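User: Hi! I'm working on a homework problem where we have to compare a predicted structure to a textbook description. Could you give me the structure for the chain below?
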Amino acid sequence: MNKPAIMIAAALFVLNGCATPPVTSDNPTPIPPERLAGFQTNISQGATIVVNRYSGFLSGAGCLVSVLIDGKTAARIDAGETGTFIVNPGHHMIAVSGDPSRAAHCAGLPVSPPAQSATVLKTGQIQKFRISGGEKTALDIRPTGL
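Assistant: Happy to help. Predicted structure tokens:
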């Protein structure tokens, strides 16, 4: 094999390892119960918010971030995890910010100021959000269909 082919193969291998594949409804890893902080109580006539955090090195794998709903911490989420939260119908602000108890190796994770997204939910509605970005880019939270 010639040198340019080896260089191209190595570059593709490195880039593939840094990819941030989406977490979908088909492959969720739930947030462990000890990292859920609220919005878990069933509400009659409620609505549901699902938050997926992309996996992979570039999404800050191994560094937890906080998911906030209406300014209240709902969970601490790691890359590749999914959380389901029950809310009353109406207007809600979903945000992602730095985890206050994060490890020293995560200190450089750029998550400030918090990224935010607004939604208005009706009774029985499910709205999905995705957290993307990480290691060298600011985290972001957006609605998703995945």
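For your comparison, note the following. DSSP finds one helix and nine strands in the chain. Residues 21 and 55 are 6 Å apart (CA to CA). Good luck with the assignment!
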